[in-house]
Amino acid sequence: MLPSATTTAQAAAITLAPLSVPEPTLPAIRRQRRSKYILNPALFVPLFYAALLYMAGIVLAHLHYFRPGLLLASLAPIVAAAAISISKAPRIVWLPIAALWFVLGLWSAETEPEPAANPVILSYSDGLLRTVEGSIVNAEPIRNNRIDPSIIDPSLQDSDSTSEPASNSQRTQQVDLAISSVEAISDTTDAMQTIAETPSARVRITIHWPATPHPSSSQPLDSLQCGQHIRAVLRMLPPDTFHDPGVWSLPNYLASEQISATATLVATQQDNGEPRLVLTGAPAINSPPCWLNRMRTTASAQLETLPFLTRNLSPPLRATPEDAAMLTAMLTGDRSFLTHSLRAGFERTGSFHLIVVSGLHLAILAGLVLSLAQRLRIPRLAATAVTLAITLAYALFTGFAIPAQRSFWMIALYLIGRLLYRSRSPLNVIGFAALCVSAVSPRTIFDASFQMTFIAVAAIAGIAMPLLENTLHVWSRATRDLTLISIDSRLPPRIAQFRVTFRLIAHHLEHATSHHFAWKLFPLIIRVLCRLGELLFVTLTVELALALPMAIYFHRITAFALPVNLLILPLLTVIVPGAMLTLLLLLALPASVSILAAIPATLCLALLHFSLWLVHIFGSFTLGDLRIPQPSFWQTAVAFVCFIAALQLAHAKQLKPFMQRKLAFVAMLAMSLLALWPRAIDHPANVMLFEAIDVGQGDSLLLISPDGKTLLVDGGGLGLPFVSAHQANHTEFDVGEEVVSAALWSRGIRHLDAVALTHAHHDHMGGLPAILRNFHPRELWVGNNPPVAAYESLLQQATTLGVQIHSLHTGDTMPLGDATIRVLAPELNYRPGPQPANNDSLVLQASYRTTSVLLAGDAEAPEEHTILAHSKAIPATSQVSSPLDTSLHSTVLKVGHHGSVTSTRPEFLSAVSPQWAVISCGRHNRFGHPRFEILEELQAAHVRTLRTDTGGAACLLLDGQTVTPDPGCLGASEK
């Protein structure tokens, strides 16, 4: 049926057209671009990087002077720029803030007063006998002394004094005396002068006590304690040191300890019946520092009784004096009982920090106390307070040195953050502690212990732990609660897959073993292996990071530090608590039942002996302890930049985990390699360098040829040629290690081409064993010396190290690169006496073109006459390449026998006819070297003379035609 017209019309009438709606003009939505990540921003750990900038300012102030007023004025615009950046340009706000921390470091370093000796005390430190009065502010425990004190200090032998034989003085004690009055001596007056009470008005006295009281002695004292008032007759002297580049400075150290002078005293010495040391009637001072000092002394004395208490036990459980010394250093911080041989073993294996009080010991104590508090269900606040109190008390007991301070503040910050349930950034804790320590004393950052602690802790918290978070940490946690399948869905796919695989393995193990082993013991074994892997990685990271400070301060590559620390560190967590318990029992129990302290001591000693065995095994390997020179400034700077890069890469969250670990490890490896990379020897080009190293009363001479070949003649010693070999071998100070080696390393010397020994007196030979160990020369040159024990031991050591020994005589010549060494003495038929003598000396002449150096050793008049006669007997021939081959004429003379009147006779000096003379002797030596007659003789001959006692290390440059002094070495400044 067709629709009607009406229907069609109605339909058309109701049809509606769509309304046109304008489209909104909205801005296009742009997809945010993802920035390409390079390095994590420094603001990730602001306090840590603030500490770095602050310390960088201190370092720059150490290198260059800035006016404090200008620095202070520059802070205002920097603060204004920071405020503007916060409101206007927050993206660059880090720039003015970084500048602010840097300038604050500059300002704090420039405004810190330098430690200096008290000028009043120095004015009285002239070597005259003076009566002083004062109070003892620090007293160290008494230790055994092997050398006659009158040998060490010639002032102890006076014609107007009487005392018991010095050889009976076998114990020494070091005390610090705060002087209240001193005897002022002039031509007209002799009276006591009051000294103003200042912290630096102190003198450090080494007191020699008799092993047993003499029956006729009226001396009632056998030791001194902190707080006592004494009157003493002393010869005060300013602290002295060896003036060589790279050698540790005793005056700077004593100035930091507020010590202005030193003195030595024999307790039983008397003047006309009056003792030189007496207690005054003033009451003793009972200040907190003295109370703590007496506690440390008492603790050291109690630990010394361990060998007696354990004398009946088997050897593995029996304490030796060395064990007692180690426990004393470990618990009280007193290292005075550690022998040189014991220290050397731990130093060679890079584990010396394990046997002395350090931050590690405080951390172990804090962890032990906190763990016990938790097991006793002590509330969190009380447990934190008790832990902090006990840790602070122990830090104060050990003397509260800088390492203890740093560790305590780090522990305190960690525990307080834990108490407040705040997220703790380990790097922020490290940065805050470093800022506090460096703000209190900016020069602290130049301390080796500060730098090593800072770098080691930063490497653990900033590199090792972040890299382990996505590896071993994750796998270790994944082995827990394996039966809870529901938690797999909340884990990353690879971890969830690991748990599924682990369950399959556990199911198979359950059928083969038992349910307990498969689901309990096996996951526990995997977790232990993961923990061992974590410990290995952390230790490796620390060893790589510490390669730089180890090279700078200790000149060592400790190849076995990793396994030794890895094995001993877990043992230390048992040794330290056991030793502390032993000490508490020794202090608390009466003498009649003190044997009970041997119970915890046995476990402690057994583990300690095992640790010593490990140190001995690893320390016996020659390759385990390689000595290297200190890195150059640029090596150090670039290595530290690599360390910062490793810190940044370890937190690079937008990098792939594998790439993150790889780049961070490469940066750490680059830091280590830069620190250990060989540097060129520091010597001028195209000249022969001659250096007289300041070794006190002794000889040590360095020759470097124009092409870099090295010869060391003698190695110094105690400066006491009459000290017996037995006495010398028991001294704790090794001039070869501490002085000569340090001077050679400062020049970048790794190996010596040759070492020459003039004669077998200890002031020439004493340092050579350390030189042979540290520098492994190819050749050892000797003359004709009597076969005394020390000399034979040196030859045996050279043979063991593979050093070729050459016995030289008159007429021999030895090449040294572009230079030539000619032997002038001894004669081939020379026969020495039964004991070493000065006339045994090997006399050498080093020639470069028309310039030469004559090294006379200790040759006296008889040997000089022999040299003159032999020189005149050789006729000149056409085959002689230079007049120097037959003549004694030399442009430089190393004066024989330290300037004694027995050497450098007028006819010998006339034959040599030098332009320059160098005298190697010690300050305040008892022989009066150099003698005034020799100085007059050199002056009359118009010979320019250098002396090591007044100018320190002396260097001359021989270019083949002229001789000039080296300003970089002459009168070397203390470092």
TrEMBL record:
Membrane-spanning ranges: 37-59, 65-85, 92-109, 352-373, 380-397, 452-468, 535-554, 566-588, 595-621, 633-651, 663-681
Domain Metallo-beta-lactamase, chain residue ranges per copy: 697-897
CDD domains found in the cross-reference section: ComA-like_MBL-fold (cd07731)
Gene3D superfamilies: Ribonuclease Z/Hydroxyacylglutathione hydrolase-like
Location in or out of the cell: Cell membrane
Keywords carried by this UniProt record: Cell membrane, Membrane, Transmembrane, Transmembrane helix
Residue ranges of the region described as Disordered: 148-174
Signal sequence segment: none
Ranges of Polar residues composition bias in the record: 156-174
Coiled coil feature spans: none
Recorded topology in the membrane: Multi-pass membrane protein
UniProt keyword Acetylation, yes or no: no
Record-given protein name: ComEC/Rec2 family competence protein
Organism: Acidicapsa dinghuensis
